[in-house]
Write a structure and sequence with these properties.
The complex is a heterodimer of chains A (about 110) and B (about 120).
Chain A lengths: L8 E4 L5 E6 L12 E5 L6 E4 L13 E6 L2 E6 L8 E9 L4 E4 L3 E5 L1
Parallel strand pairs in A: 1-9
Antiparallel strand pairs in A: 2-6, 3-4, 3-7, 5-6, 7-8, 7-9
Chain B lengths: L2 E5 L2 E3 L5 E8 L8 E6 L5 E7 L8 E3 L7 E6 L4 E6 L8 E7 L13 E5 L2
Parallel strand pairs in B: 2-10
Antiparallel strand pairs in B: 1-3, 3-8, 4-5, 4-9, 5-6, 7-8, 9-10
Classes of the chains: A mainly beta (about 110), B mainly beta (about 120).
């Protein structure tokens, strides 16, 4: 029941910039609820990448940045590296569902 | 250091029950809003439900697919979170993670999860 839509996959060459969109609605992102992003490397548990729309936890490289506008949010990865190959999920809160919601997930491939 | 250690997973038949536990440490558990999130094999993340701190009412919220079948509870004296799962279905097969909601937003700490397999 994902209510946040992400592209299934994005790809880029090493050093390039890629962006991942997260589209919601007026009951979640559009209602002003913050968006958070998670990275899941193959075979591991997810890891928080961005919280509060654009904040990086300590240890997360500044190559990762987040933004939010209207009913959507975006995650940008600049200077793409081989170790960035992973699944990425956005997450917010939905007032209609009275609960947290995750995006459909995006697989990033480094060419 | 925050630690969240899930346990109790295993193989159960459709219609059966299972109780998961989560031992928490490294933060003030009694003040935390705790959630369960699951991930089916090869699929995305799905929020299961949450329980607020007793100070904030101790109320629970659940995702539609588990409402009426799953119950979240907490024992603040033991720093432990529980997920009672009844009337299990094959689609409940997943790795289950317990998480604490950070005041700044987001789930900052993830354990390794516990695998629940519902199969005959």
């Amino acid at each position: 029941q994902s209510v946040l839509t992400q592209p299934p996959s994005v790809s880029g060459a090493p050093g390039q910039r890629v962006t991942i969109s997260c589209t919601g609605s007026s009951s979640n992102i559009g209602a002003g609820f913050d968006v958070h992003w998670y990275q899941q490397l193959p075979g591991t548990a997810p890891k928080l990448l961005i919280y509060g729309n654009s904040n990086r936890p300590s240890g997360v490289p500044d190559r990762f940045s987040g933004s939010k506008s209207g009913t959507s949010a975006s995650l940008a990865i600049t200077g793409l590296q081989a170790e960035d190959e992973a699944d990425y999920y956005c997450q917010s809160y939905d007032s209609s569902l009275s609960g947290y919601v995750f995006g459909t997930g995006t697989k990033v491939t480094v060419l | 250091e925050v630690q969240l250690v899930e346990s109790g997973g295993g193989l159960v038949k459709p219609g059966g029950s299972l109780r998961l536990s989560c031992a928490a440490s490294g933060f003030t558990f009694s003040n935390a809003w705790m959630s369960w999130v699951r991930q089916a094999p090869g699929k995305g993340l799905e929020w299961v439900g949450r329980i607020k701190s007793k100070t904030d009412g101790g109320t629970t919220d659940y995702a539609t697919p588990v409402k009426g079948r799953f119950t979240i509870s907490r024992d603040d004296s033991k720093n432990t979170l529980y997920l009672q799962m009844n009337s299990l279905k094959t689609e409940d097969t997943a790795v289950y993670y317990c998480l604490n909601w950070n005041d700044k937003g987001g789930f900052h700490y993830w354990g390794q999860g516990t695998l629940v397999t519902v199969s005959s």
